[in-house]
Amino acid sequence: MRLDFVYGLLITAYLTACNSYTSEYIPIEKIGEHPNSTVFIGMQSCNQCHLDIVNAHKKTAHWLTSSKITSAMVIPFLNSDKNYFDLKDQTRLYFSIKNDTLFQEAYRRPYKSPFFTKSIDINIGSGTKIGNSFLSWEENSLFQLQGSYYKPNSKWINSPGYPSFFQPKRPIFPRCLECHTTFSQSENWQSAILTNRYNKENIVFGIDCQRCHGPVLDHVKHHRKNLIDSVGRKILSYKNFSQQQRIDMCALCHSGVGQNINQAAFSFTPGDVLKNYLSTQTSNEPDVHSNQVGLLEMSQCYIKSEGMDCMTCHDPHSNERNNLIKFNSRCIECHPSQQHNSLLPENTWDCVKCHMPMKASKIMKIEINSDSVSQVLVRTHKIAIYKE
Ligand code: HEC
Ligand code: HEC
Ligand code: HEC
Ligand code: HEC
Ligand code: HEC
Ligand code: HEC
Ligand code: HEC
Q: Which of 36, 253, 295, 333 fits 382 for a cystine, CB–CB 3.0-4.6 Å?
């Protein structure tokens, strides 16, 4: 009787400790190592106790933003209306799959045999909004290829920033991977001199838990040994972070590419002061593309309220694209009875539509055909009154 009671108590404590408990016990798999000796482990080792967060995270643009190419992944790209596009200098870039490998080949009339062939090894971009860019290895050097895949039209296009004539490849520097992977190690990782040579075996694809939460190995080991401990141990906690520390973690990748990089890529860890690593705000008019921090900080909502940060509106673990009911309810929490001039032409429930309108990016442009360039529309984070 007494024993049953203790047993029952233990089970309750166990279930509270692991709020999404699963019996799946997965061995800890090392998938990378930071030169500061932080060990990266596979995200499946969180399943046992955080299954809901892991499952939700797998659907986010963060998780899907980079990966090694597999043949299953590329089949949808090759269903596009045509697997090539033409450049202004009469070069045709053609995409095909051979023995499970995807290739980009360049042809000139009469398109008999390619004069340039490259394997496509890595995908960058979740494809949730714009599409995918592709990288290729040449021994240990990493390059971006000229062809990208544009999701809205299911088309192969010239990669943003490439000239409209044939250019074989462009080196990929660490800052690109810093925003699109959890970790990668350049050969001269301590040096400020840029290189596109990497340790191929030490790249952690996708943005996973460890990018935002720091080292996790000791946390997992502790909780596996102490299943009834319901307080998160041996892990950084955002509850103890200041507003600036919470914003800096997102600002690492959401405040523009950065003008001055003071410390090598992948040296910033959660809790650090970002401005010691890079200077971000580069103009009075931050671009809507990848500079949500700069724009939010110009908004009266941010300036005049206490402790606003990205998590005021975003759940960092879920794909919430188009969940406008949720986003608008965030506005109403702080503006519960907003009075509008009665002459407003439409319903006023969609606050976001008028006060955070879509704006064209000045730096990110897409060349859909060789003679038409379209601007990419991004949701501005400068919350304000717009006249249009
Ligand atoms: C054996 C169980 C267990 C495993 C495995 C585990 N955790 Fe936890 N974790 C916990 C418990 C218990 C807490 C405290 C309750 C909570 O916040 O869910 C916690 C809390 C956390 C917190 C919040 C800390 C805070 O105070 O804000 C983070 C972040 C976290 N875990 C990340 C991870 C990551 C990432 C993994 C996988 C690499 C992982 N955990 C694996 C048990 C575990
Ligand atoms: C400062 C961080 C940063 C850097 C550096 C960066 N990106 Fe991005 N990238 C982003 C963010 C943030 C987005 C999401 C869209 C936005 O905010 O406009 C994005 C979007 C993308 C997308 C579109 C994904 C989609 O489907 O919506 C692709 C493709 C992409 N980046 C490729 C690259 C490549 C290739 C490089 C390097 C040559 C690079 N990016 C450099 C932050 C960055
Ligand atoms: C893009 C950054 C980011 C990624 C990736 C991320 N987290 Fe978080 N996580 C956060 C932030 C920020 C908070 C604090 C939320 C708050 O205080 O509002 C948080 C909070 C948590 C908490 C505390 C409880 C909660 O739900 O708020 C746990 C547990 C957690 N994360 C686990 C994980 C796990 C497991 C993964 C990987 C599957 C993961 N996180 C991936 C940013 C991230
Ligand atoms: C390591 C770089 C990095 C960090 C840190 C980061 N992000 Fe991102 N974020 C990205 C990139 C890259 C994309 C675009 C991914 C894509 O579509 O390929 C993105 C996309 C997003 C999106 C758009 C999601 C969608 O559905 O398209 C939101 C919202 C977002 N991030 C919020 C946050 C918040 C909030 C934080 C801080 C807790 C954060 N991010 C931290 C790199 C990062
Ligand atoms: C954390 C609370 C908070 C949230 C969330 C919030 N706001 Fe605000 N907002 C404020 C405060 C405080 C002000 C300044 C009011 C003042 O000056 O009296 C403000 C000002 C504004 C203004 C006037 C801006 C100007 O330049 O004059 C608009 C418009 C606005 N908010 C719309 C929104 C919308 C739309 C959302 C949701 C996307 C939102 N707010 C979310 C707190 C918030
Ligand atoms: C006041 C609410 C609010 C705050 C605070 C906020 N966002 Fe957003 N964010 C939104 C809304 C609304 C959208 C549009 C969502 C959609 O269309 O699905 C959005 C979209 C985004 C996108 C995708 C943009 C696009 O057009 O593809 C990114 C990236 C993003 N937010 C990052 C951030 C970051 C980083 C922060 C913190 C600096 C932040 N957000 C703070 C409301 C907010
Ligand atoms: C159809 C477009 C539209 C929609 C939808 C809309 N607003 Fe506005 N909002 C405006 C315009 C235009 C103004 C400036 C004129 C006025 O006050 O009527 C304004 C003004 C404001 C102000 C500043 C008032 C002041 O005193 O300075 C706030 C705060 C605000 N809106 C919040 C909201 C919130 C919260 C929602 C959603 C519940 C919302 N708005 C929906 C267009 C819109």
A: 295
